[in-house]
Design a protein that fits this description.
Number of helices: 19
Largest sheet: none
Order of helices and strands: HHHHHHHHHHHHHHHHHHH
CATH architecture: Up-down Bundle
CATH class: Mainly Alpha
Oligomer: single chain
Helix content: over 70%
Strand content: under 5%
Structural class: mainly alpha
CATH superfamily: MFS general substrate transporter like domains
Shape: globular
């Protein structure tokens, strides 16, 4: 094991890449991550709006909604597998090649969903194939996050790792904006019957263009300096996943726990909210997606702002503050939605996402700084995907089930408040990483 390799100068320190290279890598990583999140989130929006009647028409509307969210959750099952497999090869072969593979897998699976016949055409094969393609999506995203973050952070100047990591994190809010904007446009430009029949396929098919652009950009990247130094010194691990669990299991669990509640709140606000506002509150899709788009833009701004702040005051302090505020806001989120007041719905969404920016903006640098370079891809990917599968994967399904069992949003509010508390407590156990070499 090494602590990052050695460059010119002090042992264990890798010389940073030139600033122009660091910027180019950060932007390229962010573009690819944006495309991956776009592909992942258009599935979530489709699951909340059209997959029920198109792929599960043989059951009741409530059961169809639950089944749609279950297929959404299936993608999370594959994410740890993608994180393990691509983390293994990312720590042995390199970061760049895994980024190319993740983008290819995500692109082909998303295109496949856009071309997939529905239940009326091929019967039970339709939901079965939908699940398979969703599994491939999850596998690809599981390996994407760690590679993109490490390429950016490992190229970054020492004192600006938080900021450069946040550029990659911007792929999340930009992906949210793009996916919801395309769905909003599709729902406005065609009548509801046409949207249900074929309009929902447009966002999936449009991703083919984005994938081509992303591949062209990623193929031109160089390997990260930290991994290049690990490989030069012959310090790559034969079994990085086993080694990181053997040496840093507590760190992995705490990092995963810190993301568990954030992931759950994110998917409640981005996926379940759409279903809840249409099915329970009776609001139109444009009225629902418009505040979500604005909230996502504010989320992106907060991600960068908090990340830059973390380079000056430390990461852990901002994570604690943001997660603590989310515990309080989770308790009032659904009461605000239940007013059916459009201004209060805007406030509920915007504050929820801006507060998450305090964590999401600092997370890339923190997860990279927690692990040595030879095990970093595996450690960061495992932490992120484990937190996602424990938090985000079941969140929309559990929220829908809790509401249908209780007939009230109170149970859902208690659930997300508990999840936010889990994240806050986990951050308490993490060390400050801002000054790590």
């Amino acid at each position: 094991m090494v602590d990052g390799g050695s460059g010119a100068g002090a042992p264990g320190v890798v010389a940073p890449a030139p600033v122009h290279d660091a910027r180019r890598v950060a932007v390229a990583s962010a573009i690819g991550t944006t495309i991956e999140w776009y592909d992942f989130f258009i599935y979530g929006t489709a699951a909340a709006t059209v997959f029920g009647p198109r792929f599960f028409p043989q059951i009741s509307p409530v059961a169809a909604t639950l089944a749609s969210f279950a297929t959404f959750g299936v993608g999370f099952i594959a994410r740890p597998i993608g994180g393990i497999v691509m983390g293994h090869f990312g720590d042995r072969v390199g970061r760049k090649s895994m980024l190319v593979w993740s983008l290819l897998l995500m692109g082909f699976s998303t295109l496949g969903i856009g071309l997939l016949p529905d239940y009326s055409q091929i019967g039970v094969w339709a939901p079965a194939l939908l699940i398979v393609l969703r599994l491939v999506q999850g596998f690809a995203l599981g390996g994407e996050w760690g590679g993109a973050v490490l390429m950016s952070v490992e190229h970054a100047p020492h004192a600006r790792r938080g900021f450069y990591g946040s550029v990659v994190a911007l792929g999340l809010p930009i992906g949210i904006v793009l996916s919801n904007a395309v769905f909003l446009a599709s729902s406005v430009l065609v009548d509801p019957a046409a949207f249900l029949a074929w309009g929902w396929r447009v966002p999936f098919l449009a991703s083919a263009v984005l994938i081509g652009v992303g591949l062209f950009i990623r193929m031109g990247l160089g390997e990260s300096p930290a991994f290049a130094e690990v490989r030069r010194r012959g310090h790559t691990s034969r079994a990085p996943v086993i080694d990181v669990l053997r040496n840093s299991a507590t760190t992995v669990l705490l990092a995963a726990g810190s993301y568990t509640g954030i992931s759950a709140l994110g998917y409640i606000g981005l996926v379940y909210y759409v279903s809840y506002a249409t099915r329970v509150l009776g609001l139109s899709l444009p009225a629902i997606l418009t505040p979500l788009l604005v909230a996502a833009v504010l989320f992106g701004a907060s991600v960068v702002a908090f990340a830059r702040w973390s380079d000056r005051v430390g990461r852990r302090r901002l994570m604690l503050w943001g997660n603590g505020a989310l515990v309080a806001w989770s308790a009032v989120f659904f009461p605000l939605l239940d007013t059916r007041s459009i201004p209060l719905i805007w406030v509920a969404l915007c504050v929820m996402l801006v507060l998450q920016g305090a964590y999401i903006g600092t997370q890339p640098a923190v997860f990279a700084e927690l692990f040595p370079a030879s095990l970093r891809y595996s450690g960061a990917s495992l932490s992120n995907t484990l937190g996602t599968i424990l938090g985000g994967a079941p969140a929309p399904f559990l929220a829908a089930a809790l509401y249908d069992m209780s007939g009230s949003s109170t149970a859902v509010g208690v659930y997300i408040t508990i999840m936010a508390t889990v994240s806050w407590l986990s951050v308490l156990g993490l060390k400050e990483t801002g000054g790590a070499s």
